[in-house]
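Final report, closing paragraph on structural work. Over the funding period we assembled a curated collection of sequence-structure pairs, and we close with a single example.
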Amino acid sequence: PYFDAVVLPLRRSYAWGVPSSAAVKAIAEFASPAGIVECGAGTGYWAQLLREAGVSVRAYDIAPVNGHATNGFHALGNLGNALPFCKVGSAGAEAAAWFPDRTLFLCWPPREADGSGTGRADVAFLASDALKQYAGETVAYVGVCRAAEDEVERYDTAGETFERALTDDFDLVERVELPNWPPLRDSLTLWRRKRRMGSHRAEAPPPEDDDDQDAPLDAGAVERRAQARRAALSEVRWAGFDRGWAFQRLSQSRPPEEAEEREMLLRIVERAPWVLRLLGRLAARRWERS
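Its predicted structure, as stored:
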């Protein structure tokens, strides 16, 4: 099916919400001078686009794709996690409390679990939990929002608990149309708090290694990640020609600078014929000795 062969791999490799230049510009202009804190950042695709637009972003996910845990929303079958577009820190909703001076950004937060078993229990209330802990003034939300779109019939993102808290405490400032995968009706909505809160103290300080999150990727790293991502998508879509590309990359005497590319390539080769798998292991050993 088209959804399984095209839409789902693209979502898992990039983002579940489709960005546009107008949306990125709107967030950049609306964001707090301190920047943005994103909860549930996934691959960091939106975070990287915002950084390229000049916005400081602190991006977090409970299972960063650049970590060792499998991210259920950004896993590419046997290939493991999709490659990250930028560094994503390991944290959940609590990250919203760390940065009250930043705009809270939520992009396609998981659907809230209900009695029917719908929704992921481990992240069922990520959006509402983040909003509850956030003491700042502004929120940028990419997802299905009944308060901003009367014709929406179902929640594909977040849910009633989140939207009730959002509309109770925040005023809708702007709505920006987004490209949608049919039949979805998600959009970007920007919100400002109705009343100012008192001083807020985070329960825990942010990790000390946050300072390098805004460091830009060099051009070579960007291209290598793009190539590995294309290979992964082709593999998911059952196109085998990229196995030869993966083997060629593995056979080079110069090790790549990005460890995640090496892991991705090894996963691709592992699904190739036994000859390529053997040669891939030999190439990997040569990397380790170099």
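The CA atoms of residues 109 and 158 lie 6 Å apart. The longest helix spans residues 219-236. We thank the funder for supporting this effort.
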